[in-house]
Design goal:
Oligomer: single chain
CATH topology of the largest domain: 7-stranded beta/alpha barrel
Number of domains: 2
Number of helices: 21
Largest sheet: 9 strands, mixed
Radius of gyration: 24 Å
Shape: globular
Helix content: 40-55%
Strand content: 5-15%
CATH superfamily of the largest domain: Glycoside hydrolase 38, N terminal domain
Length: about 525
């Protein structure tokens, strides 16, 4: 087969572990992602494999997400979230005489009960193992990514910071999957030319950039983005195909906007009386999404129409057929134009499927089932694609991202312009300290060396967490800005406090408290900020 389509999903939740409180709204970002996206995706892929339906997907599981998947406290809280949602379903069934939605609430209860059995009985809460099993059978290519989804191009002013993000992310991948990754997901799909060398030297074979990152490059090959290129460092670059990605992703014209699909915004948590939601919200007085939604996107004035699963199934049928026929026609036209082995790379946030777009996982399943009978193209992964290609054109992608405007405006906006100066100062400090310690540690006592290594490890953790690109996105949202700013300033303050502990050799018990607050990358090398060559 010489025509290929690759679907890439990026799954990420920032580090939102808050065991110091009984219920954290931000923690629910993780729990809802597990319930609405990961369990349905895993269920779908395992079912296709069991029924011998051919499929291939590429998936990035970010290091913070992998760490929280493994965390015992977070597993217990995910289960508690699931049980809390199930109780709300039962309350909704009892309240059916008021709302009129008894039958729909029962469907939700049955669905969430099935997902609970998958989580606890089938996979014993170990979602990494469930994904690794699909990787081992060749159905899933899992990529590595940066440690905390730092926006790498804006960290390049201190190359050691980028090196640390990349190396730490790869270390986490190897610890989880016991093999080296071939691909690397760039956070926010953000690329700068200097990253080519960093990734290649770290052992990465390929990465993905936005379409305009390739097509706007100097001397860009006319085949881009439907043929990967190779940089002078030997890194293979795939381009994200806007046409195919937009059919699904586009807010105005994409499939999820069809009025037969479920309305994401009409949620019980936003509309039911607060007193009624008290058990679900716990101590929180802030409304939130519950996943229980009764209406479809169709509106008649201010009134919404009741969700109809049969209508949604018809929409899935139509859209899956349209997607496949569009890819077939697109790839045939590319091949007719003289492009050998054309590839259409469609990349999305994984949360689009199941969470934002309730029917999205069903769409993917229908796409793969229908594709099994087609002969005009095949689904592949970048890694599989490269096994059949021996020669690629040269490429020197320009700086780009999939953020607003296509570059870095989201993270250099007025709300965010203070962040990178603060981060850069700490990165420069840490790189300098690591270098000095390496040069002088032979003159220190054993206890002093151990103490300083421990402090450097924790300073690295705090700086990596402060570098997350999520905070810049959240700072532009009025409701989430206080949390994001608090997280950045908190991690920077912890970095500074740890440096004081390091130099004074005092208050070691406080260092232990700081470590317990952020138990991520626990065995990170103290010198991962070593001088960049």
């Amino acid at each position: 087969m010489s025509r290929h389509c690759a679907i890439l999903l990026h799954a990420h939740v920032p580090w939102v572990r808050h065991p110091e409180v009984a219920h954290s709204l931000e923690e629910d970002w993780l729990h809802s992602s597990v319930l609405e996206t990961h369990l349905p995706l895993l269920e779908m892929m395992h079912r296709l494999r069991e029924e011998n339906v051919p499929f291939k997907i590429t998936l990035n599981l970010s290091p913070p997400l992998l760490t929280m998947f493994q965390d015992r406290i977070m597993k217990r809280r995910t289960l508690a979230f699931l049980d809390r949602t199930l109780k709300l379903c039962r309350d909704e069934i009892s309240r059916g005489h008021i709302t009129g939605f008894t039958s729909v609430a029962k469907q939700y209860e049955e669905r969430f009960q099935d997902l609970r059995m998958l989580f606890m009985d089938r996979w014993q809460g170990d979602l990494i193992r469930a994904y690794a099993d699909l990787s081992d059978s060749g159905h899933l290519e899992i990529t590595a990514s940066a440690a905390t989804q730092g926006l790498l191009p804006l960290l390049m002013r201190v190359p050691e910071a980028v090196q640390a993000q990349v190396r730490t992310g790869i270390r986490q991948y190897v610890q989880c999957f016991e093999k080296m990754p071939r691909g690397f997901w760039l956070p926010e799909c953000a690329y700068a030319p200097a990253l080519s060398k960093v990734l290649k030297e770290a052992g990465i074979e390929w990465t993905l950039v936005e379409e305009h990152g390739m097509t706007n490059a100097r001397n860009a090959a006319p085949e881009f983005p439907h043929l990967p290129g190779v940089t002078q460092d030997g890194l293979v670059i795939f381009g994200r195909d806007q046409a195919s990605s937009g059919q699904v992703w586009n807010a105005d014209e994409g499939y999820p906007g069809d009025d037969r699909y479920r309305d994401f915004m009409r949620d019980v948590g936003l509309e039911a009386p607060m007193e009624y939601l008290k058990d679900y919200l716990g101590e929180s007085d802030q409304r939130q999404f519950t996943g229980l939604k009764y209406f479809r996107s169709s509106r008649n004035g201010d009134d919404s129409e009741l969700y109809n699963s049969e209508l949604a199934s018809k929409a899935i049928e139509e859209h899956s057929s349209h997607f496949l026929s569009s890819r077939g026609a697109q790839l045939a036209a590319l091949e007719d134009s003289g492009i050998e082995n054309p590839v259409s790379v469609c990349a999305f946030d994984a949360d689009l499927f199941g969470h934002w777009w309730f029917e999205g996982v069903g769409f993917l399943e229908k796409v793969f089932r229908k594709a099994a009978t087609r002969t005009d193209f095949e689904f592949s992964t970048p890694g599989n694609y490269l096994t059949g290609v021996t020669q690629l054109p040269a490429v020197a992608p320009v700086s780009s991202s999939w953020g607003e405007g296509g570059y870095f405006e989201t993270w250099t906006s007025e709300e965010n312009n203070w962040i990178f100066n603060e981060i850069q100062q700490r990165a420069e400090t840490l790189a300098r300290i690591v270098k000095m310690f390496e040069q002088n540690k032979a003159e220190l006592t054993r206890d002093s060396v151990a103490h300083r290594k421990r402090c450097l490890q924790h300073m690295t953790r705090e700086l990596l967490l402060a570098q997350s690109s999520d905070w810049g996105v959240l700072l532009r949202n009025e409701s989430s800005a206080p949390y994001a700013e608090g997280r950045i300033r908190g991690h920077l303050a912890n970095f500074d406090e740890t440096w004081d502990i390091c130099t004074s050799f005092n208050n070691v018990s406080r260092l232990g408290e700081l470590e317990l607050q952020s138990p991520i990358f626990q065995d990170i090398p103290w010198n991962i900020f070593e001088p960049y060559q």
